[in-house]
Amino acid sequence: KTKSPESYFTTVLVFKVTVVVLHVPKVTGNLDDCACDVETIDSFNNDQLFPKLQALLESDYFRFYKVTLNKPCPFWTSSSHCGLRDCAVKPCSPNEVPEGIRSPSHNKYSAEANEQQEECEKTNHLGAVDVSLSEETREALLDWSKYDDEAQRFCVVDDEDSPDSQYVDLLLNPERFTGYKGPEAWQIWNSIYEENCFKPYTVKRPLNPNSFPSSSGGEARTFYSWLEGQCVEKRAFYRLISGLHASINIHLSARYLLQDSWFQKKWGHNISEFKVRFDSELTAGEGPKRLRNLYFLYLIELRALAKALPFFQQHGIRLYTGRPEEDQKHKELLLEILQLAKSFPLHFDETSLFAGDEKEAAKLREDIRLSFLNISRIMDCVDCFKCRLWGKLQTQGLGTALKILFSERQIKALPVSSDHRPSFQLNRQEIVSLLNAFGRISTSIRELKNFRSLLAEDW
């Protein structure tokens, strides 16, 4: 205090504060066209359903999927197959697949059912009416029966008897990032969106990579104005495809190749990849919309599982691998999962679809069925074999879910005894794809929780 004020040096410390804005994809609240909210789905899936479902999908019945991976693309000439090593799929050798799955009786779910079918066929063969039929008539009847089955399907089903069809162990060929990207990959998605989602070419899809410069806000507003103007069925169809696309992108971001050296490969969560696909700021607001469509897809497939419960409750339906104790245990676990699905409090109401004029509704349903059938054919144009495998499985699973949702009358009319041929059936391919496809959606919902935690830590 003895010094004059002029002798003091005043030191001013300036702190530069950098504010980091973390754009975590915000997906909360009620979903469009539904009575459900995101939080209810998160809690139900992550705490109750996901652990049980993962245990079921590790069983032999669900881990082996028969598929034909070398079909030519029916729509354009593919330049080449993916040469990346992570695109390869390792098929099973015959001795790796349980005998009960490989045997001809596996489609009938049990040896008992197979014996009943053989007895029934012998009886029919000895019947006077059947013997009186000409060979041409019998072939025609078989064709009609096949046509009836095909008319219910929303997707192409590979011929299991084809010599090109092979069993694949899904646990040994997991869905993950393979390096397959660029124009070839986008050609697949553009073909799906532009040619099969009822969208006119004049309406540009937001962030379409084929349009330069990137989509403007005006184009996005035009697109969503068009989408909201569509009937609920076509709007739902687009949201299913968008939700499937979002789910696949989450899988690729969650199982990304983080380290590749001569002695080790490390797969894990790639936060940057996730943000590029879903961050609101980096996607001009599209990311959260994509995630909301994922939740919508979850509701559709969950509802299908609940509706399929009476089919799987039939005594003759067994998850047949030839190991009776394990088969029974897994059948009980499956029924437990389906009962849990049925107990979900805020199911999607499928009666809101195709509820108008009967003729118009029937035509719209057929248009949507054919569009999805077309999408399932596009999967044979995917150059990466591992991506093709999981693309075919997930589209077939969603197609099977749609088949279930729109077969309510047939499911309700399922016969009590095994003496009559049921009007509603699912073969093993459809069952395996249905549960595995929903397993992928369930995993995506679970991975969103993981990414939220990682983004918070990153911040």
Q: List the domain count as a whole number.
A: 1
Number of helices: 17
* Main beta-sheet annotation: 2 strands, antiparallel
For the terminal residues, how far apart are their CA atoms? 47 Å
Oligomer type: single chain
> How much is the average pLDDT?
83
What amount of the residues lies in strands? under 5%
- The total strand number stands at 4
Query: In which order are the strands of the major sheet placed?
Result: 1-2
Task: List low-confidence stretches.
Answer: 5-21, 105-133, 140-148
Structural class: mainly alpha
Task: Indicate the percent of residues in helices.
Answer: 40-55%
Shape: globular
Cofactor: FAD
Pfam families: ERO1 (PF04137)
Family: Belongs to the EROs family.
GO molecular function: FAD binding; protein-disulfide reductase activity; thiol oxidase activity
Secondary structure elements and their pairing?
Layout: H1 38-57, H2 60-63, E1 64-67, H3 99-102, H4 111-126, H5 128-132, H6 135-152, E2 166-169, H7 183-196, H8 217-228, H9 232-254, E3 256-260, E4 265-268, H10 271-278, H11 286-307, H12 309-312, H13 324-342, H14 358-378, H15 385-405, H16 408-412, H17 428-458
Antiparallel strand pairs: 1-2, 3-4
Helix pairs in contact: 1-13, 1-17, 7-14, 9-10, 9-11, 9-17, 11-13, 11-15, 11-17, 14-15, 15-17
Structure overview:
It is a single chain. With 459 residues, the protein is mainly alpha-helical. It has one domain (45-77, 85-94, 139-204, 224-458). The protein is built from 17 helices and 4 strands. It has helices at residues 38-57, 60-63, 99-102, 111-126, 128-132, 135-152, 183-196, 217-228, 232-254, 271-278, 286-307, 309-312, 324-342, 358-378, 385-405, 408-412, 428-458; strands at residues 64-67, 166-169, 256-260, 265-268. The strands form 2 sheets. A two-stranded antiparallel sheet has the order 1-2. The radius of gyration is 26 Å and the shape is globular. Residues 5-21, 105-133 and 140-148 have low confidence and may be disordered.
